[in-house]
Specification:
With 178 residues, the chain is mainly beta. It has one domain: Roll (SH3 type barrels), CATH 2.30.30.100. The chain has a ten-stranded antiparallel beta sheet with strand order 4-3-2-1-5-9-8-7-6-10. The longest helix is centred in the C-terminal third of the chain and has 8 residues.
């Protein structure tokens, strides 16, 4: 019997050093977050890539049939669907507790929900122990610090821990009120 692997193709926005690259990641049997979190890979191959400055998202500076992004210079990746931002293990075992998180990376303030298995959130403990090289937040908004009218939203954001300069907990919106 022949086995067919899932083709992990995701259109996403990749942010690094003041630029946004919108393009398609084709991972074959590996999902985008599985490749991002993998310490043995240094690059992401993006197809049909459009480069634009973060303050002018509608202004296309260039188009590339394919391009390589270095993971060490990546600030964050924003996906439209939550499932496209979750590692394989996260799809089945998201933490029981949810925390509202606000963090900053160069040129952006990012807000989203963090799923954790810990009952309480301590940013120092989280960054020094629980977090890996990248952090996944759900239902994310990234607002440009130079132009607050420019923001990007997605189902998930994968943020480079090395790019974070501020991380704090914020209250989650009350969803029980009508």
């Amino acid at each position: 019997m022949q086995r067919h692997e899932t083709d992990h193709t995701v259109v996403a926005d990749f942010f690094a050093q003041g630029y946004r690259v919108s393009g398609t990641f084709i991972g074959g049997s590996r999902s985008l977050p599985d490749v991002i979190y993998d310490p043995s890979t240094d690059y992401l191959l993006i197809r049909d890539a459009y480069l634009s400055p973060i303050t002018a998202p509608a202004s296309i500076g260039a188009h590339y049939a394919s391009t390589i992004l270095t993971k060490r210079n990546l600030d964050f990746v924003l996906t439209l669907e939550q499932k496209d931002g979750l590692r394989r293990d996260q799809r089945y075992t998201l933490g029981t507790y949810t925390f509202g998180i606000c963090l900053t990376v160069p040129f952006f303030e990012i807000r989203g929900r963090l799923q954790s298995s810990n009952r309480t959130f301590d940013p120092r403990i989280f960054l020094s122990g629980e977090a890996g090289a990248f952090i996944t937040l759900l239902d994310a908004t990234a607002r440009c610090t130079f132009d607050p009218q420019t923001s990007y939203e997605g189902g998930a954001v994968v943020v480079s821990r090395a790019a974070i300069s501020f991380l704090g907990e914020q209250p989650l919106p009350d969803t029980t009120a009508s």
